[in-house]
Amino acid sequence: MTLGPTSRTTSRVRLLSVLLLVLMSLTISIPANAFPQVHTVTFFENASETDSATAFETGTTAQTLTLVQNMSPAFTDAGFTFDGWNTAADGSGVTYADGSSYSFSADIGLYAQWVAIPVVRTVTFYENASPLDLLSAFASESAPTQLTLFGSLQPTFSNSGHIFSGWNTEADGSGVTFADGSTYSFALNVSLYAQWTVAVAYTVTFNENDTTTDSLNSLMSKSSLTRLTLFAKLQPSFSNGSHTFSDWNTSRDGSGTSYSDGAQFPFNNDLVLYAQWSLISPDIFTFSANGGNGIVASISGSPGTILTIPGQAGLIRTGFALTNWNTSANGSGSKYLVGEKVTMSGSVHLYAQWSGHVPATLFGAIGTFKKDSSTLSAALKNQINRIAVTIKSRKYSKISLFGYTSATGLKTLNVILSRTRARNVASYLRNRLHNLKVRGVTVSSTGEGAIAGQSSNSYSRVEIFGV
Predict the structure, then answer these.
(1) What kind of fold does domain 361-466 have according to CATH?
(2) pLDDT single digits (tens) 6-27
């Protein structure tokens, strides 16, 4: 039988109704992770405790954090430069570098960290060849730095008929004097005026001195404050068989004033210098501090050379004094007295012998300081914190601080720098003891300067004694 249009329509409606009932009976399950959760990073400008400037970044998976230069609004802190992010405003939390990756697995607040921009100061050097001379050069730094050497200035300075003798804060030399190449703090702008002395020509006569009657000479005529001609450049050239040149002396036998090869010194008269010679394989006297600190330079010479046994110069041992030297560390060997004249007949190693007592217990040291700096870094402050805890636990009543520095070449600077380091440590230590509620502890400080000849930065420290 053939269905009419009405019957076919009815059948379709019934089929659709059945399908709809089936679909309505089904339960559709959507996975929980089908829609990842969005998390937010809140950036805080953190230029001050009341700074409310913020920026935001959202994400659902790990991605790179917005660079500080792309923040909107822009982040700034006058006089400071951006130094990364931290989860704590005071920088005590977790650190994130600028543009580093974050997982975006949780909301987080990041606080901008700022460091002060060093203040740059300028030293202006003036040629000062006359009252109207304005030729100048400049050096700008933000920390203690060696002044530009006179010979390296651009433009170059000169004063016809005169020799440069140093710098002064006043054109007429009535101010503060600075030696060529000395270290300046750059804490203030300063003007330095070249100081000049009239050039007077003197003659240095170099004598070969390979025998008691040697008359082979070489001449040098220079003005004041000039370097000696190097031995290797003398004309005619000097030599002495199996010996090697060591230095110059105003006496043929080396008993006068010594001058290092090429040394600079002020010429104020004519001078005769005699070459001093050493055997190529000389005898050597070496010295050990044997419980002290510092170094005494070794002494070398050919067999038969007379030497003087040195004293304590260059050695430090708090509470002790050098009495003599000995070939054995415990003093059981051959004794050599300070100042004794000895004829060299072989190489010898001598140990310092000390008398005295330890005035206090050396229980710590703060260091090392950065070169030519007395500033307490975070690491140095942490060391002082530990020292304060030790003082409290051991119940010390008197603390003595002794500052040291590596040799800078300027004795006055050595003393000032070591004293300032000791004072800074003392000030911070008193503060820490006060916070620990430690009372009745006397803290004193002094600067010991530099141990002679020691340029290693390991000597830039403050030693701590307690009783």
Answers:
(1) 60s Ribosomal Protein L30; Chain: A; (3.30.1330)
(2) 555 556 656 666 566 655 555 4
